[in-house]
Amino acid sequence: MIKRLAIIGVGLIGGSLARAVKRAGLCEEIVGSGRDVVQLRKAVELGVIDRYDLDIASAVRDADMVVVAVPLGAMEQVLRALVGHIRPDTIITDVGSAKASVMTAARNVFGEVPANFVPGHPIAGTEKNGVEASFTELFQGRRVILTPLPHTDAHALAQVHLLWRAAGAEVVEMGVEHHDEVLAATSHLPHILAYALVDTLVRMDAGADQGEEIFRFAAGGFRDFTRIASSDPTMWRDICLANRPAIITLLERFRGDLDALTDLIRASDSEGILAIFNRAKAARDRYYQKENHNSGVK
Amino acid sequence: MIKRLAIIGVGLIGGSLARAVKRAGLCEEIVGSGRDVVQLRKAVELGVIDRYDLDIASAVRDADMVVVAVPLGAMEQVLRALVGHIRPDTIITDVGSAKASVMTAARNVFGEVPANFVPGHPIAGTEKNGVEASFTELFQGRRVILTPLPHTDAHALAQVHLLWRAAGAEVVEMGVEHHDEVLAATSHLPHILAYALVDTLVRMDAGADQGEEIFRFAAGGFRDFTRIASSDPTMWRDICLANRPAIITLLERFRGDLDALTDLIRASDSEGILAIFNRAKAARDRYYQKENHNSGVK
């Protein structure tokens, strides 16, 4: 049981977490804070949080746990606002999509990452944002990665596990660097490709309505593909900057692979093209079949 | 009213078209043909077609219309099987995803593209294939592109319009070359990127279970993105070969744009990254908002 939970940044993620822990009866009181008073008022109106305080220092006073759910670009500034206003035993956790950069921010602010700071990242989201897009089930059955450091406090870690399990998530732990590599692959690279693809297509014939024609004749796959290009540009810009090394490594690798595939198509190398397509389909189908099997879905 | 409709290739597309025109009461009889007797038997069992004949020459005898719904790689061979077995007034249409290559196949077989040949392409599909994946509503509200030539017979064209409208589709016409450029952008490039991405990620750490780890931590966007990499590899190999010039042009353009974006990330050029992401999101949202508005959906 958490007596007072402070959530800094009550948007899609912060708002959905608040809804879920409220539903689970895990907290006595949830206090919201952040820059956007309209969002915070809306969050109170919707019953997502109990009250808000625009001043982070007041919002976190006597909080048992502080969840920092702001864009990566605002992380350091928000952590700095906590200094001197939280209790020594207040647990801090975050939801940032790149963990090394959050660790750097914490070190810049606190000298070293506090033992009560449990870095976290829920693998969930939609292309929408803001508290009005938040919903109780966002984390249901989704995975949350925690990246504790060797000196992270065991009790703090257990409490953050509890928080996310109450929200319906499956909690796993991995190292900071490994997290950043895996997420660069599963999330950051696909988003960058989707943005780049839509941008390429839209600019193909800027004079005419080619942009519109492109979308008009887009079938299901393309719509799904480009849906993620409708995600919050600022958030994704921040992610690109925060996880730059892992992203650049992957972009370079992907470029090499795409060049090789392009060469195969250019040479009409039927076998070579088919080998790549088969390998990709097999890997994907293998995993999702196994997952569906495990979850009892046919 | 079509007395006898012959469908060569009763898979996802051919099967769904058969179901839809049957439901619409447009045909007296639908005869299926193709290479796969198991699929054809299943199609009769499911009531998708009335009967089948493995011999294309017999299947198309006295047909008023022949729909060729086979992979692009089999197109020329199937068209050749029609020679001498269809009536002079039999209408031929196809569903190939690249139209210039179908025109070449028709010219190779018939000397010139017959006036009764109406090239077509329904912008619909799923990542599944086979007649068991077919369903009546596949074309409902979807677009079908016809690419008639200057000498295409007006009556034949009108009949193919009728066929697809009966299946619930919106029919539009455009030139062969324009079709191939638009589809390279909206469909072929996204599929190639999805295959390439999945393949890159799966091979990242072939020794360990990295491939699985990648999928395990994939959130919604990535799943959508990679779902299209689960499409039929042979079909997509055929498309790459058939629409090679337009695809290569686009791949080169995309590569240039991706290199530029990579450079911006490498240089931590915050404004430059944001400009691209914003432009992509704006274009996509603009179109889908308009479309939702037009269709009365909020």
Straight-line N-to-C gap of chain A: 38 Å
Shape designation of chain A: elongated
Strand content of chain A: 5-15%
Radius of gyration of chain A, whole Å: 21 Å
What's the total helix number of chain A?
A: 12
Tally of structural domains of chain A: 2
Largest sheet of chain A: 6 strands, parallel
The CATH topology of the largest domain in chain A, please? Rossmann fold
The biggest chain-chain interface is: A-B, 87 and 87 residues
Fourth CATH level, the homologous superfamily of the largest domain in chain A: NAD(P)-binding Rossmann-like Domain
| CATH architectural grouping of the largest domain in chain A | 3-Layer(aba) Sandwich
Subunit organisation of the chains: homodimer
Task: Give an overview in words.
The structure is a homodimer of 298-residue chains. Helices cover 54% and strands 12% of the residues of chain A. Chain A has 298 residues and is α/β, with parallel strands linked by helices. The first copy, chain A, folds into two domains: 2-174, Rossmann fold; 179-267, Orthogonal Bundle (6-phosphogluconate dehydrogenase C-terminal fold), CATH 1.10.3660. In chain A, the strands form two sheets. A six-stranded parallel sheet of chain A has the order 3-2-1-4-5-6, sandwiched between helices. Chain A has a three-stranded mixed sheet with strand order 7-8-9, with helices on one face. In chain A, helix 7 crosses helix 11 (244-266). Chain A is elongated. The model of chain A has no long low-confidence stretch (mean pLDDT 91). At the A-B interface, helix 7, helix 8, helix 9, helix 10 and helix 11 of A face helix 7, helix 8, helix 9, helix 10 and helix 11 of B.
